[in-house]
Amino acid sequence: MITRREFIRDGVAAFTVGFAAPAFLSEIALAQGARTRNLVVVYLSGGNDALSTVVPYQDPFYYSRRPAIAIPAGQVLQIGSDSTGKTLGLHPRLAGLREIFNQGRLAVVQRTGYLNSSRSHFQGTDIWGTADPNAPTGLGWLGRYLDMLPAPVNTLAAWNTTRETPRALMTRTVSVPAIPDARTYSLSSPNSGAEAQVERLAATQIASHVAINRPHLSFVNGSIRGALDTLDRVATVNTYVPTVAYANNGFALALRTVAGALARGIGTKVFWVQTGGFDTHAGQGVAGGGAYANLMGTFGDGLLAFYTDLQNQGLLNDTLILQFSEFGRRISENGSQGTDHGAAGVMMAVGGAVRGGIYGTAASLDPNPSNPTLENSGADVRYETDFRAVYAKVLDGWLGADSVPLLGGNFRQDAPAIL
Amino acid sequence: MPRENWQVEHLLRRAAFGPTAADLVTFGDAPVSTVIDHLVEYERQPDDVDSKIGQSEYVSVTTRGGQFSPNTNIDDARQRWLFRMVHSQRPLQEKMALFWHNHFATAYSKLTGAYNAVQATKMMALKPGDLPGPPGQIELFRRFALGNFRSLLIEVARDPAMLVWLDGRQNVRNRPQENFAREIMELFTWGVGNYTEQDVYAAARVFTGWNLRNATTGGNADPATYYEFVFNAAQHDPTAKTFTFPIYSDGNRTIPARSAADGMQDGIDFITALAQHPQTARRLARKLWNFFVSELEAPDPAFVESVASEYLRNGTEMKPVVRHILQSEWFSNPDRWFTRYSWPVEFVVRAIREIGWAGFSVDTARTPLTNMGQTLFEPPDVNGWELGPGWFSTGAMLARMNFAATLAANQRFNVSRATTSYRTTPEALLDFFLFDRLSPAPFDRQPYNDLLSYLRAGGAWTGTETQANTKTAGLVRLIVGAAEYQFI
Known about the structure:
Distance between the termini of chain B: 21 Å
Largest sheet of chain B: 2 strands, antiparallel
Largest interface: A-B, 77 and 76 residues
Shape of chain B: globular
Number of helices of chain B: 23
Order of helices and strands of chain A: HEHEHEHEEHEHHEHEHHEHEEEEEEHH
Low-confidence stretches of chain B: none
Radius of gyration of chain B: 24 Å
Structural class of chain A: alpha/beta
Distance between the termini of chain A: 67 Å
Strand order of the largest sheet of chain B: 1-2
Low-confidence stretches of chain A: 7-15, 18-34
Oligomer: heterodimer
Helix content of chain B: 40-55%
Strand content of chain B: under 5%
Mean pLDDT of chain B: 96
Number of strands of chain B: 4
Strand content of chain A: 5-15%
Mean pLDDT of chain A: 92
Radius of gyration of chain A: 23 Å
Helix content of chain A: 25-40%
Order of helices and strands of chain B: HHHHHHHHHHHEEEEHHHHHHHHHHHH
């Protein structure tokens, strides 16, 4: 029988990857530019009820199909009408977004989605993440973008503020660091001083070996190297003092961290921020208040603080914020003042380069099964703008990439002119 | 003595929480079949683990103002569960409870929003008999750890925590609520692709009236208050429900119209159909492959068919299924040792069991576990945690390294004392940790040499107690924080 010692000493020869010194990494960050454009993706997780975000407040079916939860017409924040003359209003807790809209820096893209919309959170999230409704199991649409950046890639080219790496950021090469809170992103040791430094160096060395017959070990080692490589630069964000007050919730604090990273010139091109609780099957709230209003308050107030902070620092023109959710919800409310899983939703774009306004057309909520703006026998909103057309606009018009290979098709011709 | 019973160790890592030194004495020479029996037939072992909380020879818990309230305070419930995982004599029962917690992923935070902390903790974790009310959800998973899956599904459908989590408590006749109806098909049984929107509508009607009630007169802050399942016949839709797939063994797709008073049978019929469907059997088999066999290979189709037929042949009983897996060549194949990414709680519990716990409180692990991405009783959504490589973002890996540092610092003197006869050379000290004290996957020669270099750095090796105290703590942190230790 092979003994433990023999097994280890006979391990297959491995090779070692070079790891860059921190000073070298800083140079990359500088070269890749503190002032390059960046994208901040905001994901409303759980399936946002788009009809409560952007309210078709003169559609009589909106009120007849939502007797308990409809937002009264007198409360919505009017933003005008779309190209078909349908009048629209933002949720009453989105006063901040209306202010941005009035500044001409908020684009609302109605009825975004795809054919045969999935009503599953997890399949839906994967579809939006991969931009591939037919085979949503591969790399992310932003991961593919990151994979094509020229080497050497800044290890902070992307920054995920959640703990789990979202499908959209799954890459083939450099994995995206997950940094929910810069203040706890630090390394501890059982020892101190020089001994702790020796230990950190040893950890870096150990993680730099590539076990060629055990790629899963190499994958974990990649995470370890990613953590050790990014620690010192992330620490610089801790001293950031924002120009506005951010609310004390996870979403606002993540945006505050993003603002700090931008102000410090870390060189990150893609940030991922999310806020949850949108799976509102029950207790959504009545008369414009309640649970959904709280969700909108978190979302809208956080975004306004971030927008204002960037504006004050002269960073707004470098930043594009793109909001999405995995699906919209059913048009008719259920018996528990909530809505179940539906189809098309709403996307928003905010930033200094955004051409504000209303894009796309609102659905008619008439439940007649032949209503072409609905699907599933009039139960759900049918998509009008393929979400990949919006992605194409962001990739081509903002990140300077070629959307056709990244999205596996040409969606440019249908892209709304949000930039 | 170096550990050499590889097959037993593999079994104890996968079907338990890793071997302690005492386990190695007990099982070091035992045949694998004996250890499988010991784990699977866990009713033969005492269920007295909770009575050891607070005793000095076990890992500690942290009290608040002198109180330890695992039935009404969720942080204490987390401590109790961690304690059980570290010390239970029925580790496979705890391991399967963890499996079901991920499978029927229910989060405390939504419950506390609806009913406050006391009731929400009771719904998640009440131990039967400690306070009035039905057992908490985790006790259901413990009771059915290797029980009958169909029975477990019925209990889950009536479980107060689930009725709040997926809104069944508000599923009423007039406008049914689809949340539980969709997820029982998509996530709890056969998976997406087997049903249509029409089936979701019909299933929502099946569960109308499966609600919740306060069975007492007290307020939510009163620990004596409790909520329980109620079948509310007045809110049940008694009309027929037709599906796109067979509900009955004769191929009939329609649950017949029944009087509202008999309406609960709709749900029993529907759950029975789902539990006994071959697609449910296969989906469970695939999840069990990932849990017990490997996360590096897709499930072997032959395994899936073999396990699925075992499940169906045994009337959806899980014990013969898990025994079948543990006894199989798929499981024991040495190529599959260390091919499962450890979950954060598995990592933490194994580290405590291997490094030591004297004077250490499991409460210390709670915040690190959150940073590693796993807060017990708080899965991110109804789909459970993102397993496998999903655990290993940079931030989460940093949290694992930092927990290793915390535990190594805390146990510095205990661990150092154990090395007295291994301090002659750095090699002897390293071999003690790699082969005796800890159970990482094999290190290749280069990282092995890096560990040696760490021991030699900063001056000549003298083997003094001072040097050992420093270097053993650093070494334990390096091994436990290395990629080689993240797999089971």
